Amino acid sequence: MTTITDTVRSPLAAGTAVLRASELRSELPTENGTLRAVDGVSFTLRAGRTLGLVGESGSGKSLTSRMLLRLNPPSFRETGEVLLSGDEPLDIMELRRDGPVIRSVRGRRIAMIFQEPMTAFSPLYTIGNQIMEMILLHRTDDRSEARAICLEMLNKVGIADAERRIDQYPHEFSGGMRQRAMIAMALSCDPEVLIADEPTTALDVTIQAQVLDLMRGLQRELGMAILFITHDLGIVAEMCDDVAVMYLGRIVEHAPVREIFRRPRHPYTRGLLDAIPKLGRGRTARLASIEGTVPQAIDLPPMCGFFDRCPVRIPGLCDARDPEEVRVGDEHTVRCERHGPDAPADDSEKEANA
Fold first, then answer.
1. Is residue 229 within 8 Å of 65, Cβ to Cβ?
2. CA separation for the pair 251, 269 (Å, rounded)
3. In 153, 214, 257, 335, which residue has its Cα 20 to 30 A from 343's Cα atom?
4. What is d(CA 135, CA 106) in angstroms, rounded to the nearest whole number?
5. 180: Cβ contacts below 8 Å, ≥ 6 apart
6. Computed over its alpha carbons, how large is the radius of gyration of the chain?
């Protein structure tokens, strides 16, 4: 009988590049102009490692993640390359959104956990039937085997009394249990890549900690690469190996997680870190915040998109052109004129040591 521990794909060595996204762009024509929702995003997902994609609402995180599975509406014009490794590397961006090849990738090679599990499960079918549907599509055509795999996964993600719960409906599960069931469904076909889009936002802190522990344990066991989308830098510190900070459809800083927290280079990254509540602050102390909001990415002029909100902007430079990506460490890149070749030397050095 098939079980989840049976290998359904070749094992991947830790650190192996599983997916490479290059120059991803997603544009939406509107009556007010073209919305550049994703603008030249590139990153690599590696086996056994977690990349955190962080930023405020409207930064383009979810749209970027959905490009990896061709899930955005056809009204978006999308370009770039999403190369999924294998004996024959597959460029997902060349696939039809509703074609048989992308359907074979969804759930089987790349799985996704959504923010709100109640909308991911149909209220008309049992939890078990919906998980088994994925297994029957990708792993076996034997319903008894599919049910056995489903039970094993429900047990693996910590669903108590799985033999009874498998035949219950989504409304009979608590929010934390639905999230665990969604993880079970996402991992039931042993994917190489897991996309987790704000998977703990709707959960209380106790259940949130349990879900994060579960994901880390399953990652160690299955060796998958994880793209973890969140606005919570506390979770990033706990969960991620590397961090890509998004703003206005672009990655403005990319580095290992320790480097991001120890020495952030972009003013936006520092603003996000400063906004984290800290123990020891007095009751009357005000939380730091980033002034303003993310602007609409429609027909923006060639300048730094963070200019109007930046506390250390350089007039005449930051508002004159798009900042180029600059390497400031072995694995640390940033898009900021204060680290570019034309930055004032004093300010640049002061900023780097801030």
1. yes
2. 11
3. 257
4. 12
5. 154, 157, 158, 159, 211, 214
6. 22
* pLDDT tens string 238-262: 899 999 999 999 999 999 999 999 9
Instruction: Write the single-letter amino acid at 337.
Output: E
β 225-230/50-54 pair status: parallel
Going by C-alpha positions, the residue among 304, 277, 4 that lies closest to residue 162 is 4
- Amino acid code (one letter) for 311: P
CA distance readout (Å), 259 to 237, 243, 262, 263, 292: 11, 9, 5, 6, 27
Quote the distance between the C-alpha of residue 31 and its chain's center. Answer: 30
Out of 13-22, 115-124, 253-262, 278-287, give the one with best mean pLDDT. 253-262
Q: What is the pTM of this model?
A: 0.89
Tell me the C-alpha distance between 178 and 20, whole Å.
31
Round to whole Å and give the CA distance between 229 and 112.
Answer: 11
Please give the helix or strand (H or E) that residue 350 lies within, else none.
Answer: helix 345-352
pLDDT tens readout for residues 137-189: 999 899 999 999 999 999 988 898 999 999 999 999 988 888 889 889 988 88
- Specify the residue for token string 């991947």: 12
The answer to whether 126 touches 137, Cβ cutoff 8 Å, is no
